[in-house]
Amino acid sequence: MIMLTKKKLLIVILMVFSLLGTNQLTFAQAPCACPPCSGGLPVLPNVLIDFDISGSMLAAAYVDSDWEYGDTGYCHEYDINGNYQGLFDPDKRYNYNNSGKYFEQADDGDWSGNFLNWVTMLRIDIARYILTGGRIIESGGNRYLVSNEDSREHYTRKKYTETGDNQTPYTGYNEYRVYEDNGYYCNRLRVDFGGGG
To answer: What is the pTM of this model?
Structure first.
């Protein structure tokens, strides 16, 4: 057994009582308006957003439940009652302007905005849309809300087979493919008629 001398015993007792005597109210007080580490200066809050810019952001935003990145198969699972957000207003109709090569809103348009979002939106487009409202360019005195400008080859093939539901101006089993048009640095929609798959 270790024997403590009177001097050591007194020091230990004083240390214990000094710890027990700490004012407990100091721990219950609200935090400081200016933390001591700020040097007394007010510190504004800061938010860091870690934005994914990997190649997977070039994949389609809306895909089938069993689809995997890099899959070359077709996506078939468009839900006419679903709500697909993106650069097109899901509740509006659109026509394709052949001379200007863009979609424009039209009350009696041939294309459903919801369907166009399902077909065309990439993950990067959705992220930009949420964070900034999308990418806008000006050309010829007009403003255009455009898709991704990445020049890497990417596309997702989608098939839509329903007819008579007023989603597209086309009927039958058609392939809808988004591809890069390097002349304009924005995605284009190509429709291949009557493909199998």
So the answer is: 0.62
- C-beta of residue 110 within 8 angstroms of C-beta of residue 86: no
In our burial notation (b when 16+ CB lie closer than 10 A, e otherwise), range 147-167 reads: bbebeeebbbbbbbeeeeeeb
Q: Are 153 and 180 in contact (CB under 8 A)?
A: yes
The answer to whether 97 touches 103, Cβ cutoff 8 Å, is yes
φ, ψ of residue 174 to 5 degrees: the values are -115, 150
Identity of the residue numbered 11: I
Question: Per-domain residue ranges for the chain?
Answer: 59-192
- pLDDT tens for the 197 residues of the chain, in order: 455 677 888 888 877 777 765 555 555 566 666 666 656 566 677 888 888 877 777 777 887 777 666 666 667 677 888 898 888 889 999 888 877 777 888 899 888 888 888 888 888 888 888 888 777 777 776 666 666 555 554 555 565 656 556 777 766 656 666 554 444 434 445 555 444 44
In contact, 191 and 178? CB cutoff 8 Å: no
In this structure, the dihedral spanned by the alpha carbons of residues 101, 133, 148 and 73, taken in order and rounded to 10 degrees, is: -100
